[in-house]
């Protein structure tokens, strides 16, 4: 439970953080809230040569609206997101998901960018990011670029984030007017992490037909995924109880299920279907 030796340095700007990453020769690790990183350090599952603290970079915090998107700085804490009126008005499902993360101490220190960049398979936000069509702003030595959340998560704790770059903000698409949304999860009784979590967003046209539907699943396997088979089954149809049941039965078809001592692959597949049906019924019936 004792980390290996490392150096510590604090960055005061995005440019300085990028320079410190470059100068670390691949041995640098960014420190955000630290709730995920510190346990890995203690178990020596990661042994960086330098910890680069980005907690005091002011431009990485804050929430703003631009067009049809809400943009949240990567170092904005869960507590700050939960108390923000723009999030409450436009992204209630994001607040609902964040409210289920950890306890009050974790929500006071944990950051939205740290959660997504860490890419823990059991984290709650990757699935919500997929359902809200998130775009990730990544700053590197050659400038900034926008990357879709769909394709950013490559494996357990592995993302498409380049070695000398950092995530600076996350942009979430505002659902259409009248849309309803929810995030439900079966939480591990000891850790609170998602064994399976389902985020669902839907809207109906004036005729009562599903015009918008986005469903994403996290916790079930190595990466979060869009349950496109579920979406295809519902889009353009009236959401009857039977059609919802049929759609939910496909919730595990687009992802690879994990297996561990707590939940087998078969059990996770079952949970995907159960929680997808509950989420869809909550927003469509």
Strand order of the largest sheet: 4-5-10-6-7
Largest sheet descriptor: 5 strands, antiparallel
Q: What distance lies between the first and last C-alpha atoms, to the nearest angstrom?
A: 49 Å
The total beta strand count reads 14
Which residues sit in consecutive blocks of at least 5 with pLDDT less than 50? none
Radius of gyration: 19 Å
Strand content: 25-35%
Mean pLDDT: 95
Order of helices and strands: EHEHEEEHHHHHHEEEEEEEEEHHH
Number of helices: 11
> What percent of residues adopt helix (DSSP H or I)?
25-40%
The backbone outline, from C-alpha atoms, is globular
Structural class: alpha+beta
Can you characterise this structure?
This protein is of the alpha+beta class. 31% of the residues lie in helices and 27% in strands. The protein contains 11 helices and 14 strands. The protein has a 5-stranded antiparallel beta sheet, sandwiched between helices. A 4-stranded antiparallel beta sheet has the order 11-12-13-14, with helices on both faces. A hairpin with a 6-residue loop joins strand 13 and strand 14 (225-226). Helix 9 packs antiparallel against helix 10 (241-248) and helix 10 packs antiparallel against helix 11. The longest helix has 20 residues, at 265-284. The radius of gyration is 19 Å and the shape is globular.
């Amino acid at each position: 439970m004792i980390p290996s030796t490392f150096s510590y340095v604090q960055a005061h700007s995005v440019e300085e953080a990028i320079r410190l990453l470059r100068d670390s020769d691949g041995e640098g690790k960014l420190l955000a809230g630290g709730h995920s990183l510190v346990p890995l350090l203690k178990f020596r599952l990661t042994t960086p040569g330098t910890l680069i603290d980005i907690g005091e970079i002011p431009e990485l915090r804050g929430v703003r609206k631009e067009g049809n998107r809400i943009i949240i700085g990567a170092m904005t804490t869960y507590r700050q997101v939960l108390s923000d009126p723009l999030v409450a008005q436009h992204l209630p499902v994001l607040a609902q998901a964040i409210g289920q993360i950890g306890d009050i101490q974790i929500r006071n220190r944990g950051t939205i960018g740290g959660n997504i960049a860490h890419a823990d398979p059991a984290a709650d936000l990757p699935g919500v990011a997929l359902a809200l069509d998130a775009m990730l702003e990544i700053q590197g030595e050659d400038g900034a670029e926008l990357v879709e959340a769909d394709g950013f998560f490559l494996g357990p704790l592995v993302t498409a984030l380049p070695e000398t770059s950092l995530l600076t903000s996350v942009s979430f698409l505002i659902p259409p007017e009248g849309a309803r949304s929810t995030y439900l999860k079966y939480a591990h009784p000891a850790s609170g992490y998602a064994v399976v979590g389902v985020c669902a967003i839907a809207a109906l046209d004036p005729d009562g037909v599903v015009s918008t539907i986005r469903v994403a699943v996290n916790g079930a396997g190595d990466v979060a995924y869009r349950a496109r088979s579920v979406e295809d089954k519902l889009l353009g149809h009236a959401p009857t109880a039977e059609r919802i049941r049929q759609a939910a039965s496909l919730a595990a078809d687009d992802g690879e299920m994990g297996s561990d001592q707590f939940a087998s692959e078969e059990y996770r597949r079952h949970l995907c279907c159960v929680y997808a049906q509950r989420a869809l019924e909550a927003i469509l019936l």
